[in-house]
Specification:
Helix content: 25-40%
Oligomer: single chain
CATH architecture of the largest domain: Alpha-Beta Complex
Number of helices: 12
CATH topology of the largest domain: Nitrile Hydratase, Chain A
Strand content: 15-25%
Structural class: alpha/beta
Largest sheet: 2 strands, parallel
Order of helices and strands: HHHEEHHHEEHHHEEHHHEE
Number of domains: 2
Radius of gyration: 22 Å
Strand order of the largest sheet: 1-4
Distance between the termini: 35 Å
CATH class of the largest domain: Alpha Beta
Length: 305
């Protein structure tokens, strides 16, 4: 069986977009995987389970499985469980308690965690939860081919992972760089100031309420931002304002933040991978421009098509 996430990506994608295939995978994983051309060891029983946003799985690999490193907390916990019998038994008996200790904070009450242990003749296939737009962002950062497909053929690329847009809806994807930033004026703007509000959000709310201001922001974004926020933007940065309509949606691939721009904040899971160092990292804030301009945030994108 292909062990790497890359090798199983086509299987996950097909399960996301085809409910019948997903059910077949859950009911009879061995035969279904073989039908997809994946060569499996003889005498091995496969169990498939499906994660959701409220139910995560941790699989303790059988001894001798390929080393997966310890880049994430999930991998660290797996490795520790394989080496420490007492830790493994505690993890099996009380997974949320053990993981909370490793994370240094409590796992949300509505999230259930199941830990299963592979044996010499039993393997588990965990189908990640249906992806959201945050998954799309992170996949774009990690997979250049996926990003290029998303930029050139957004609707078909999203449909490939089970995110289906309305037939009459046009989707345009834009990528931010060191020299290009975008402000998105959404078709249905939330005018209530949120917990993670920032100066840019205030500008967007004002634009949703004042058409004259909106047109000024669209036509002269840098000048308008400087006047409203009271600072000068770097000369090398271009700003474009994108306005959604009832028939056109935009998806912005944010500029990949550096390590120092990623804030350790709260737990987040896209494919069930807990990050190491006792904390769960989420891309929460970043500098919209480089220092000294500190306007957060990366929005948490939602599938609203």
């Amino acid at each position: 069986m292909k062990e790497s996430p890359t090798g199983l990506t086509p299987i996950y994608e097909k399960a996301w977009r085809e409910p019948q295939f997903k059910q077949s995978l859950l009911d009879n994983p061995l035969a279904t995987l073989q039908q997809e051309g994946i060569t499996l060891p003889e005498g091995i029983n496969f169990i498939a389970v499906a994660e959701t946003d409220a139910h995560r799985y941790i699989v303790i690999p059988v001894e001798g499985s390929p080393d997966k490193g310890a880049e994430t907390l999930l991998e660290y916990v797996r490795s520790k469980a394989m080496q420490d019998e007492a830790f493994k038994q505690a993890l099996l008996a009380n997974p949320k308690t053990v993981l909370s200790e490793e994370l240094g904070q409590a796992i949300p009450e509505n999230v259930e965690v199941t830990v299963v242990e592979e044996t010499a003749d039993t393997r588990y296939l965990v189908i990640p939860p249906q992806p959201d737009m945050q998954y799309v962002i992170e996949r774009s950062w990690q997979d250049p081919i996926f990003k290029q497909n998303l930029l050139s053929e957004p609707k078909s690329t999203l449909a490939q992972i089970g995110i289906v847009a309305d037939e009459n809806q046009e989707i345009q994807v834009k990528e931010e760089t060191d020299f290009q930033r975008y402000i998105l004026l959404e078709d249905e703007m939330n005018t209530q100031e949120g917990e993670e509000s920032d100066p840019l959000s205030a500008l967007k709310v004002k634009a949703s309420q004042d058409n004259t201001f909106k047109q000024k922001l669209i036509q002269s974004p840098k000048q308008t931002i400087e006047e409203e926020l009271g600072f000068t933007l770097p000369s090398w940065v271009e700003v474009e304002v994108l306005e959604e309509t009832s028939n056109t949606s935009y998806f912005i691939i944010p500029h990949l933040p550096s390590e120092e721009e990623v804030e350790s904040e709260e737990m987040m899971s896209v494919t069930g991978g807990w990050r190491r160092r006792r904390r769960w990292f989420r891309i929460r804030t970043r500098r919209w421009f480089r220092r000294p301009w500190r306007t957060p945030t990366i929005p948490i994108y939602r599938a609203k098509f």
